[in-house]
Specification:
single chain; mainly beta; 1 helix; 4-stranded antiparallel β-sheet; 122 residues
């Protein structure tokens, strides 16, 4: 079974950049759609971005378009989320998820990591 571990979170300031990583172990990463989600305290989980198996199909939530960039390196079994021009409202626990389809992931299904905290201070 595929296992995911996020890393790269931390405390940054408004306007800064941060790169999150999603490392996969236990199974090849290339057969799965990868997506990033985030959840702020007291709020429901929000979709952030997704990338297809080969990396050719990418989409973003409106709230992060133009600022965030999702990518993957199947040779390293890893996914990434480059976050630029960070805002305080980006503060949340960011989780990566892998599954057979984006629809499944948006339902909370598939394989999920434990998440990494991103805090953006003004």
């Amino acid at each position: 079974q595929l296992e995911l571990v996020e890393s790269g979170g931390g405390l940054v300031y408004a306007g800064d950049s941060l790169r999150l990583s999603c490392g996969a172990t236990g199974r090849t990463f290339s057969s799965y759609t990868l997506a990033w989600f985030r959840q702020a305290p007291g709020k429901e989980r929000d979709y952030v971005a997704s990338i297809s198996m080969s990396g050719g199909d990418i989409e973003y939530a409106d709230s992060v378009k133009g600022r965030f960039s999702i990518s993957r390196d199947n040779g390293k079994s890893a996914g990434y989320l480059q976050m630029n021009s960070l805002k305080p409202e980006d503060t949340a626990v960011y989780s990566c998820a892998a599954g057979s389809s984006l629809r499944w992931l948006k339902k909370g299904l598939g394989i999920w990591g434990q998440g990494t905290q991103v805090t953006v201070s003004s």
